[in-house]
Structure formats: structure tokens, C-alpha cells
Amino acid sequence: GLNLSMELARSGYLDRTGIRLLACKPETIDRAEDRELFKETMEKLHQPIIPSEVVETLQDALACADRIGYPVIVRPAFTLGGGGGGVAYNEEELREVGSVGLDYSPITQVLIEKYIFGWKEIEFEVMRDHKGTAITICSMENIDPVGIHTGDSIVVAPSQTLRDVEYQMLRSSAINIIRTLKIEGGCNVQYALDTDSMKYYVIEVNPRLSRSSALASKATGYPIAKVATKIAIGYGLDEIVNAVTGKTFACFEPTIDYVVCKFPRWPFDKFTKAEKTLSTKMKATGEVMSIGSNFESAFLKSVRSLELGMDSLEFRDAAAYSDEELVKLLHRQSDERIFAVTEALRRGVSPKEIYDITRIDPWYLYKLQNVVQAEEALKLQGKDYLTYDHLRKLKRMGFADSAIARWCGMKAGGVRQMRREMNIWPVYKMVDTCGAEFDAQTPYYYSCYDMENEAQPSGRPTVVVLGSGPIRIGQGVEFDYCSVHAVWALKEAGYDTVIINNNPETVSTDFDTSDRLYFEPLTPEEVQNILELEQPVGVLVQFGGQTAIKLAKSVKEAGFAILGTIVSRIKIAQAIKLGED
Hints:
Layout: H1 2-10, H2 13-17, H3 26-33, H4 35-44, E1 52-55, H5 58-68, E2 72-76, E3 86-88, H6 91-104, E4 110-114, E5 120-128, E6 134-142, E7 155-157, H7 164-181, E8 185-194, E9 199-206, H8 211-220, H9 224-232, E10 259-265, E11 286-292, H10 295-305, H11 323-331, H12 337-346, H13 351-358, H14 362-381, H15 388-396, H16 401-408, H17 412-422, E12 427-430, E13 444-448, E14 462-466, H18 478-492, E15 496-501, E16 516-519, H19 524-534, E17 538-540, H20 545-549, H21 552-557, H22 567-577
């Protein structure tokens, strides 16, 4: 969109026709997207940027790398998802990456940037109106250090490891940048931060909504695209009512009293021989998001939401690696590294040693160690470990019934029955943008094992629609389209509607699509918990692709009606699809 609008502006078409770009002016887009102008703008603002040079030929790129030193990052101008970019550790690699980057850039321009290994990557989602009012919507922290594209990084919101002085420093910088660039609407600012020295660099500024904007919007309940649209047509932030509370306005910064974890969904289960090393060029096809009352539960929920057959942090290929090979795996930035980290913790490698290799903040490593230690204690003692206090602690940390059952030699239903007898049930908390300071009008929920339940079924006939989970090879947004239209049709027919899904990139997880939204893993346990609370007249599984279809049997066994094709016919159709007798 930015590239097309800039071509129309440069060609004179907009001037000839009198058509104007709303919100972002061509000069604003240029100053953010053109690498040379961006560099000049940041220098005028006294905002530090990584040592770099803008080049337009491969020879200039090689000469620049010699001056600033290898390794370097290649960042093409006017591209999306890091397309054409990458890290070069020597001249041979730069010749390859640099050539691709110059070809990718529509203006044949790349930034050659010093690669800062191990610095923390932080993002701020910022909003500004034409009056100059600017707010930060959300801070986001990549668990992975600088060098891996945000789309390929595990991201946590709000940032968990920043000291207040660091947070305020970056927040002030982000607001200063969006005001100087005179961006009207949403903006994403990315930083590299050295927590040892308080030194930071501005990596880039996106004068548009991005993948991170969708995450920030779903994480906070703040409708970024809707607010940005109203700003574009002339509204001020103080004139736009917060749709969640109905009382506050869009100029109020959201307050987050929970933890959000975004986990990328890579296509390596389909492309098994693909190069799995992660860099500045995005390889993920989609992502999942989870919400929890603590980091451990949010993280474990996100792992279960990936639909890779994982219900815990156990590394499936662990037995294939010796201790030495496992340490080598820690050095490689890949989709498996976070599970190699947990396996290393399980084998006694200290968080300090893992930090020295991966530069993952020790706070996260100690949190993952909490999970691993709880796993090992359960495996050691088995069913005897499952006292009321221990089982409640495991559930508060986000452990799945299926994983607990496996380690205790039980069935998942047995753990559920044990919880029923002990009265250990999840409650649902509301995403309200204001930390419960005001009542929320739009029910948008996540589960946790606290005491007070904030989800209140309406008492009217209700239908639950199971969503389609993350976007991956063979399953895109078409299923979400179907799910949303199902909800609209049900509303017209007079039913209350509930959606269960975990994909922040979809319309079904907009807080105002259904009457009630549950942002949860699409697993038998989580779905059954919600159904028992909502007591729907039926469940629709046919619009959520294979994700929803796989849940049909467990829904029926839990005593709830499947609307449309009955389970026995679904099984026959599935058998035909798989070529079974």
C-alpha cells in the first residue's frame, strides 16, 4: 500500500487528479521508509541509530561493510517482512544477500547496518492525531535478541524485563519520533537496547499498521485500525470513544494487567528440508497469541495453540542429542531453539550459561526453569504429587491435563475428574483496556486459575463457533471468513454467539465480532471448559477447518450438540479423505 501510494505521488497522478493521501503524507512515508532520509531524520532528532550506510550498488555495500566491520545486516528499502534482507558474516555472504536485497527494493536501495548481537529488541505501538496528541498503546519485548525478524520472534506484551527508567526512555523516544514525522494514525517503532549500558538504537519506524499492530490491538483490546481510520478522516483521539468501556476515550493509554505471548507458526512441518535458521527475513506463515495471569501460563498456552501435537515444553527430539550437541543447537537461531533451551535446563545447564550463548534475558530463562522443575517434580512423584495445592499450582502455571496425565500414567479425563472433585476450575478474566478501572461493555476473555470469574453467559440461546487457529500452509484466512459469516448469520437468527480462537491476525478475534470472545488454545480441555460455562444449544465445527473438525468428537463426548453434519458422518468423510476403508 505504501509503495503504490508513493508511486502515484511521484508520478504526479495524485496532483493531477486532486486525490490526497489521508493521514500519512508522501513526505512522511519517505522519511520513514527511505533509508537515507530516515537516517537524516533520526540524526536531526538526536535519536541514536546503528552505524550504517545507505547504498545502491553491491560494490558500495562491500566497501561499507569493510568500513563498519562484519557482521552486517542488509535492510532493503520499501519492503515488507524483511523481504530480501539478511545477515552477512563475510564478503561472500554479503555478495549474495546484498544482491538479493537490491533486487527486492523497488528503489534499488539497501541499508548496510552493523549487526548488534545480543541486544534486546523492543517495540512500541504508538498513535497520534492531527492535533499532535500522541499515546503509546503497547510495549512489546522479543524474547529473542536483535537479529531475528519480529515475525519470527516469540514476543511478550507488555515488556517484562525493562526497568522503569528504560521503559520511560524508549516511550519518550517513540512519542518524539511520531510527532516529528507528523504521522497521523498508528506507527510502530523498533528499538535495540543494551540493558547493561542504557544505550539504545532506533532500528526502524513503520508509518503504517504492521503485524505487530494486530498483536498490540488484540493484546490490549484497543482497536488500532478503527481508531487510525477515524484519525485519518479528521477525528482527534479525545473525540473517539473507547468501544470496550464506552466511557473512556482513545486518548487514554491502555493498561494491561495480564501477560500476552505471541508464538510464530513456521511451515517447517510441511517443508521438512527447508533451512530453519532464523534471521531478519521472516519465515513464519502465521502466529498464535495467548493470554495468562503469569508468563508461564501464557507461554504454555501459546505452545499448545500451535497445533503441532505439543502439550508441554518437552523437546520431542531430545533423545537424539548428546549434551554437547544440545549446546551446539543453542547456538543456532532456529524454530527449535526455545525447546532446546528447556531441554538444556532439564539437563542441568544453568540459566547463566544459556544466557551467554543465546542472549535470552535471564528473567525468561528462570521462568522456563520454573516450568521444567515443576515437570520434573511431577514425573518423579507421579500421582502422589497431585495434592490440592500442587495440582492448583500446576494449573495456575498453565499445565495441560493431558501432560499431567501422561506423566502420572493416567488419562486426561482422570485428571479432569480429579480437578472436579477438588473444585479446581478455571475462571475467565476480561480484557478491558483499563485494568478494571471502568466496566467493560465488550466481553473479551482469557482463562486463568484465580478466584473470581468475570464471564457471565447471557442466559439466551447460545451457539459456540470454533475458530481455525493459526495461519499455516494449507490453511489461510478463508476459514476465518466462514467463521465470521457464521456468527453474523446466527446473530440475525436471534442467537447469542461465542467464538473460541487464538489467532491475532483474524477478524474472528476482533472483540466486537461475536457476543463473547474467548482467546484460548483450541484443545479439548480448553474448549470443554468454555462449553461447560456457556452451556450452548450447539457448537459449529464445520467453519474452522481441520482444527475445529478434530474437536468434534471431544465436543460430542462432553455432551454438547454438534450443529450441522453429525459426528458419525464427519468421521466417514474424514476416512474417505484419508483413503481409509
